[in-house]
Structure formats: structure tokens, C-alpha cells
């Protein structure tokens, strides 16, 4: 276990607990409440300023633009939930833009792998029709026989997995990977080789 500063320990503990609680909440209730995400978001800004100054705040806002921005666009086009957007928004101010980008990439891989596993397992256990009925949108009609759009709750129940779960897995994996370098500067200048000295014949 590498020796970490107080700031790094706070980051690891808070982020690990936050993503674990969010994953459990999303799995059980199909939602991530504001009373979880908003305080973590505010505390993340305080943390960055307290331990890293204005550069930390800039890193937090950069992470927010990446994490919140990507999920917000997906939510606008119907590819995610509002709770998922706020989850990444709160998480990103703690991680900064680089680790947020890593988490987005790793969580996307986890979503694809998890979805394939769940669907294949479902086909073997319930058949193609069972998987189709569970996860694909079905046309709904009201009492008058008119088609109606799916409700938000119906869409949530059709999700293959709660998005907070792959985010949790991805975040823990990124933290474990970056743990030895958490206390190092974000970017270090590459050493510049001294120009070779040439001797001139006299």
C-alpha cells in the first residue's frame, strides 16, 4: 500500500463510499436521490479549494464539464437518466478531468460487457422472447385503445443494469490504477536533452 497524503486518503475514501452507496441505491430503487449527489458535489468543490487551491478548482470544473456534460447530452437524447447525470457531476469534481475521462471510458466498457453477459444469460435461461419482453420497449395502449408513451418508471424497469453499478466498478478500478501516483503532480515537464556540443577544427 503506497503512502498517501491526507488529501489523497480523503479522495479515495469519499469517492469509494459515494459510488458504492449510489450503486446500491440505484440497484434497489432505480434512482439516485439529490440528497446524496448534491452534498457530495458541494463537498468536492470545498475539498479541491482547501487542498489544491484555485488549480484544484479548475481541475474540478474541467472534470464537471467532461462528466456532467457527456451524461447530460445522453440524457437529452434519451440515453440515460437524470440521476446518472447528477452522479457523474458530483463524482467528477472530486476526480478532476483526467480521472473522470478514464472513468467514463472504463464504465462504457463495463456497460457493454455487463449488457452482453445479462442478455446472453437471459437468452439461455428465459429464451429470446423472455429477454425481448423484459428489456425491449412494448407498445402501450390506454383505456381508449390509443397508443401512449412509456412512463419514466417503465423505462427504468427495462434497464439491463443500473448505470451506477458500472460507474462504481470503473471508479474503483481507476482509483486502484492511479493510487501510486495520486500525490504526484498532474503533469510533469519532460526533461529536455542538452544539445550535443560539437568541436570545430581550428
Uncertain stretches: 187-194, 198-202
Shape: elongated
Question: What is the domain total for the residues?
Answer: 1
Order of the strands making up the biggest sheet: 1-2
Compute the number of strand runs: 2
Q: Average pLDDT, to the nearest integer?
A: 79
Per DSSP, the total helix count is 5
> Can you write the helix and strand succession as a string?
HHHEEHH
Helix content: over 70%
Please tell me how large the radius of gyration is: 22 Å
Class derived from helix and strand content: mainly alpha
Biggest sheet, open or closed, and with what strands and sense? Answer: 2 strands, antiparallel
Q: Strand portion, in percent?
A: under 5%
Distance between the termini: 60 Å
Keywords:
two-stranded antiparallel ribbon, disordered C terminus, mainly alpha, 5 helices, 202 residues, elongated, 2% strand
List the helices and strands and how they pair.
Blueprint lengths: L5 H24 L4 H43 L5 H54 L4 E2 L5 E2 L3 H6 L6 H15 L24
Antiparallel strand pairs: 1-2
Helix pairs in contact: 1-3, 1-5, 2-3, 3-5
Model description:
With 202 residues, the protein is an all-alpha fold. It has one domain (6-140, 148-181). Helices cover 70% and strands 2% of the residues. It has helices at residues 6-29, 34-76, 82-135, 152-157, 164-178, and strands at 140-141, 147-148. Strands 1-2 form a two-stranded antiparallel ribbon. A hairpin with a 5-residue loop joins strand 1 (140-141) and strand 2 (147-148). The N and C termini lie far apart (60 Å). Residues 187-194 and 198-202 have low confidence and may be disordered.
Amino acid at each position: 500500500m503506497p503512502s498517501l497524503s491526507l488529501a489523497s486518503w480523503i479522495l479515495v475514501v469519499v469517492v469509494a463510499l459515494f459510488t458504492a452507496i449510489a450503486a446500491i441505491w440505484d440497484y434497489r430503487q432505480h434512482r439516485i436521490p439529490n440528497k446524496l449527489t448534491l452534498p457530495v458535489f458541494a463537498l468536492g468543490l470545498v475539498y479541491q479549494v482547501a487542498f489544491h487551491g484555485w488549480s484544484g478548482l479548475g481541475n474540478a470544473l474541467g472534470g464537471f464539464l467532461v462528466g456532467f456534460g457527456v451524461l447530460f447530452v445522453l440524457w437529452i437524447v434519451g440515453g440515460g437518466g437524470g440521476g446518472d447525470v447528477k452522479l457523474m457531476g458530483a463524482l467528477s469534481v472530486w476526480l478532476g478531468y483526467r480521472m473522470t475521462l478514464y472513468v467514463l471510458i472504463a464504465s462504457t466498457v463495463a456497460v457493454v460487457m455487463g449488457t452482453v453477459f445479462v442478455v446472453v444469460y437471459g437468452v439461455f435461461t428465459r429464451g429470446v422472447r423472455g429477454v425481448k419482453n423484459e428489456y425491449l420497449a412494448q407498445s402501450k395502449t390506454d383505456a381508449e385503445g390509443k397508443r401512449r408513451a412509456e412512463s419514466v418508471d417503465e423505462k427504468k424497469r427495462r434497464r439491463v443494469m443500473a448505470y451506477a453499478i458500472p460507474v462504481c466498478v470503473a471508479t474503483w478500478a481507476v482509483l486502484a490504477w492511479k493510487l501510486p501516483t495520486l500525490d504526484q503532480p498532474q503533469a510533469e515537464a519532460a526533461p529536455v536533452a542538452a544539445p550535443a556540443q560539437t568541436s570545430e577544427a581550428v
